[in-house]
Amino acid sequence: MSLERRIAELIAETGPIPVSQFMAMCLFDPTDGYYTTREPFGAKGDFITAPEISQMFGELVAIWLYAAWQAQGAPSNVVLAEIGPGRGTLMRDMKRTWARLPGAGDVRTALIETSPRLTAIQKETLGETSAKWHRDMAELPDAPLLIVGNELFDAVPIRQFVRTAQGWRERCIGLGENGDLAFVAGAGTIEADLLPPDAAEAKDGAIFEVAPARTALMQGICERIAAQGGAGLFIDYGHLAPGIGDTLQAMRAHSHVEMLANPGQADLTSHVDFAALALTAKAAGLEARATTQGEFLIGMGLLERAGQLGAGGNDALRERLSGEVERLAGPDQMGALFKVLMVSRDLQGLPPASAAD
After folding, report:
1. Do residue 169 and residue 305 come from a single domain?
2. Distance of CA 337 to CAs 186, 236, 244, 292, Å?
3. Are 198 and 310 contained in the same domain?
4. Which domain holds residue 230?
5. Average pLDDT for residues 247-276, to the nearest whole number?
């Protein structure tokens, strides 16, 4: 039985289901979920992440984590971890870069991954067995933690609320007149103090998104860093301030597709509220600093690194590197849409200097 049919039968039996439940089923169903059955990454997949675009991305991420490690006295028992590591490309580039940095030496590496299929791909990418794989944060050894999550939070299910004549109601998935899946307003409501300031002016049909599952994940990471030391770097597409708007989207073969068609066969994501993640970090006792991906990478030396890689090369190489720089940091590419959140006990003195608190 197809996932769509199973979802329809569930709705017929229990009533409309929240958007968050629909996302979780589509993405993580054990037999038909998107991340269970498909290869989402790369040119042949449904989207390309920054590490797949250029090695420079992973190099600069590693340098930031190295600077945070040095700022904390370079503890010898540190764990370098990635949560949601995709194909393992970012970790491969980080490990290679870390080994070349002055005084870095060996570092324990950990990948936090729930998918056996992706774990196998990551092991092939890394090509060695010194790294350790874990299914969740609780399995990590007690030690200072340097952790990165690239395009992690966008895939964590969200809740949506829609403005109606009766007030804000939870947006759900129900059945239309012809039995197809359809968006409907459910009975659930949201507390007024959780709405953004512009909610009062929202028109009927407006959407507001909250992500308690993201908050819980971020809280667990930050409480660990607060207790044991370390730093975190999180990169995703999203916004720096909360607001009204529907950002839920489905991607397949590098194009947007209809949200409710063919559940489990498209990547469902939404924009990340970086202000909410920063508040969670601060509540755990950490400092948090957010900026755009473009500002972060340029501030970390993206242009200089591209120049080094292109020195002595031919025109084709320099043109390729220029294209990678533009795609990663250009304001019309990933540079403005993607944001970077840095968290640690103390961010003073850490690069990039252009990033604002």
Report:
1. no
2. 31, 8, 17, 7
3. no
4. 35-156+210-344
5. 93
